[in-house]
């Protein structure tokens, strides 16, 4: 995938990096990027929220990191957490190829360990937008952890990938029934396939 980016994408051009990855995943080898269809929904939410602070849980190869960072205002900050060091190493190069390293802080480690340290380590008060795309059984515990750590403010947006496939039933149950959130489901398809999947967008009400 990285070779395809370096071969087919233009340095400093995030859209060409996104296109090269999508082409590779459609033609050569499926990969678990959010993909072009759900990626358009992600883009519209990022544009609507226009966030100054973004947390991404699950960087993988940096595809959604590049999509998000390319839409951020100049002073905005995106912190992205990746557990797998091999994925992190690739993502770092993909983000650099897109020329977005100044907007992105890639952190290696487990979300459960890093979320409680966000304020002290990165001087973050609250996140305007959180993109959940990591272990599906970590969406709920990490959301509760972000609440407890005071990382969400009235109006913070959570956008969760894969709520249908592979699925995050406990997270959906919680977020759709909690009086502290207003949720909306965006029906789509699993990246590069015809299988149903979707994004759940939730506003924290405080
Ligand atoms: N900072 C952190 N803390 C904790 N865990 C962390 C982490 N950083 C990373 N991880 C570990 C996440 C590993 C990847 C998570 N994503 C997925 O597992 C995922 C799977 C599919 C999929 C669907 C149908 C299939 F047939 C097969 C696979 C699709 C997707 O869009 C997915 O996002
Ligand atoms: Mg995903």
TrEMBL record:
Organism field: Xenotaenia resolanae
Stated name of the protein: catechol O-methyltransferase
InterPro entries, per database record: SAM-dependent_MTases_sf (IPR029063), SAM_O-MeTrfase (IPR002935)
Enzyme class: transferase
Entry's EC annotation: 2.1.1.6
Keywords: Catecholamine metabolism, Methyltransferase, Neurotransmitter degradation, S-adenosyl-L-methionine, Transferase
UniProt family annotation: Belongs to the class I-like SAM-binding methyltransferase superfamily. Cation-dependent O-methyltransferase family.
The keyword Methyltransferase is assigned to this record: yes
Highest taxon above the source species: Eukaryota
